[in-house]
Amino acid sequence: MTHNSGPIPSGSASAGLPAWLSADAAEWAAARPAPWARPLWSVLALIVAVALAIAVEPAPVCTDAAPCGADWLGMVQTGLALGLPHWYARLPELALVAAPVLAAIVAWAELPAHGTASWAANLAVIAALALGWVSTRARLAARRRQRWLVERAAGVHHPQPEPGGPTRRGAIPVAAGLVLCTVAAGAVVLGLRAVDADERQAARAVPAHAQVTGRDDMSLRVRTDDGRRTTVDAVFPEDYALGSTVTVLEEGEWRRLAAEPYDPFGWKLLTLGAGVPGVSMLVAGVLARLRSATLRGGRVPALRVLTQPGDDGRTRIHAADDTAGHRPVFACTCAPGFPAGYPHHQPAEGAGAGYGDVGLRSSGTALREAVMLGVPYDGGEVALLMAEAGGNPAGAGTAGPVGPPRTGRVPARRIRAAADTESAESAEAESPHDGRVQPEGTAARKPTSRPLRWGPGTGSRAAGLALTAGIVSGVHALTGSLAAGGLNWDLIGLLGLLGLVGPAATLLDWRVTADRTGVWLAGPWQVRHVPWEDLRGAVYTGDGSVEIRLPEGVVRRLPGVGWPWAERRLGLRPAHARMVKKIATLLAHPELRPAERSLPRTRGLPLGPALVLLAGLAAVPSLLGWASGG
Q1: Do the strands 156-159 and 2-3 form a parallel or antiparallel pair, or are they unpaired?
Q2: Exposure pattern of 274-289 as b/e (b: 16+ CB <10 Å)?
Q3: Averaged over 7-26, what is the pLDDT?
Q4: Most confident of 106-110, 396-400, 571-575
């Protein structure tokens, strides 16, 4: 293994830098785990086994001899079962630890306690966890082999060049994960305090035997030995037959069944709701920071490759001798440090001389010569160094983990300024003028003085209204349920409905305005301004979002404004697609931009706060009823 003494020179790679050839790249791709080790099978096996175990598990019976109480171990078991499907797919390092822990809990708490059917179902859960653990180990072993293959092919290490180092990722997930974990820890503390308070109250209470005379959904009506009739809350009233005898603990106005100690269900629900995503975000953020730090510190392997900007927003990496671009090795999402929007641009004459003799003969391909720094593997990160026109170096760092290229998917519509200009001009030159409107052809390009505006159509607003109606009615119903029964699983549904406020506001009144100063984007929560000098490109992505690209890889998004799958099949050309194409044209031709500045009232109104207020008003009747009842 040799080490180069200096950084990669400006505009080219140092002499002797090896290429990642197709044979080495094919060996790297073949090192991926076998199909049986894909996370999908582990996730499906776990979901089916857990569902079966829940279905056959007998309902708990609360008695004075064996009271129910707070089941903290069951909460941990539930949290691990909820998190593992995501961890199998995205965080195998965490799944490698969580799966054995859950298997041990099931073996200790579930296997000895129930009948044959439950025993077999829980044994299936343990088998599914074993499958997940083995497949996770296989994927991590494949990553190690991929790293070794790249190290062997590279043989030369370089210091990380500047500019173009990888982005320092992970800070936001780490911060958010710490906040959520703190909330979860606080919920545990408060739940334990509530349980302790209940136990101290029960120790002071006087037990009284009572006969069950009636019951409803949440309580029992009982008659004590001294003839008093009273009502006591019950979690499982159906377990107490009419005429049976129960023990009631009483102290003043406080009373409860001796068989049903306080269960901090609401606090446990909050612990799960904050703890599972909190741990996931914290671990993901830490791993991202560690991988980014590995690229930034010390020397890293360097190989010559070809890159290809993909229509799905991901950059495909090809072997250095795959000049036709037929066999991408892997793909990653990059945060570019070079001008975006020029997929057909080639380095100037002599700029890529240091990259060897792998040349691009056709400007119609989107391939570009690059130096790959770091060790790629499924889930890992790399940095890319390319040469711009004039031989100046430009870099890009991964903004997400390395993964398969997804070559089988139909690419989404991706419009960049230069590419759009070339295609529109050629289409206009080849097609006759038949009296129809030419949307972006040369004949249709006329300067305009007034600002240009785009917004939702009738279908989009109808969908937004329907979604808003569902949110309002759902909030009203769920808050009523919460007010009547306290914290329960309805809280998750309520939080989910509030998460739909942003998409509903976007469908109702998204707005993009182009004027003399730049582009104004009105989303669900705020109006953002992008000056023309900062604009690098406009993209309509495969998930129906509009992205406005800025320098340093910054992106302004309007999520969920369209449905590309349906638009392609129905032959629709909605406003957001026309808007992206028009902005690309205005970016390439400054003389066509509007001459006037738009007025603030014409730039759109973020409806997110208004919909939150509307949802709050829908919850007011339930809250008032709860307050008056309290």
Answers
A1: parallel
A2: bbbbbbbbbbbbebbb
A3: 67
A4: 106-110
The whole-angstrom separation of Cα 422 and Cα 441 is 10
In whole angstroms, give the CA distance from residue 353 to residue 533: 32
What was the pLDDT predicted at 345? 34
Place of tokens 């300024």: 417
Are 420 and 430 in contact, with CB atoms under 8 Å apart?
no
252: left (phi over 0), alpha (psi -120 to 50) or beta: left
The count of other CB atoms within 10 Å of the CB of residue 161 is 19
Residue 2: its pLDDT value, please? 42
The answer to whether the bond into 163 is cis (omega within 30° of 0) is yes
Question: Tokens 């006037």 sit at which residue?
Answer: 596
Give the pLDDT score at 581: 80
Number of Cβ within 10 Å of residue 22's Cβ equals 15
**523/530 Cα distance (integer angstroms):** 13
CA distance 140 to 450: 57
- Range 213-225 average pLDDT: 84
Q: Which is nearest to 509 in space by CA: 525, 497, 530?
A: 525
Is residue 433 predicted with pLDDT exceeding 60? Answer: no
Give residue-wise pLDDT tens across range 103-139: 999 998 887 766 788 888 899 999 999 999 999 999 9
Whether residue 270 is predicted with pLDDT greater than 50 in this model: the reply is yes
CA distances 97 to 43, 93, 108, Å, are 16, 7, 17
Amino acid at 79: G
Q: Which two tokens stand for residue 239?
A: 């377990």
Which amino acid type is present at position 201? Q
| C-alpha torsion sign, points 30, 35, 39, 42 | negative
Q: Dig out the tokens for 425 from the structure.
A: 């001009």
Q: Check if the beta carbon of residue 49 is closer than 8 Å to that of residue 121.
A: yes
170 and 289 Cβ atoms separated by less than 8 Å: yes
452 touches 514 (CB < 8 A): yes
> How far apart are alpha carbons 598 and 520 in whole angstroms?
9
Mean pLDDT of 230-234: 86
**Token couple for 546:** 């509009």
Q: H helices of 527-629, where?
A: 564-570, 575-588, 608-629
CA atoms of 343 and 306, how far apart (whole Å):
13
What is the gyration radius of the CA atoms in the chain, in angstroms? 31
Mind listing the pLDDT tens digit for each residue in 357-389? 333 333 334 688 888 888 888 877 788 887 655
Collapsed DSSP state (helix, strand, coil) of residue 543: coil
Torsions phi, psi for 304 (to 5 deg): -85, 130
Q: Which two tokens stand for residue 57?
A: 């598990």
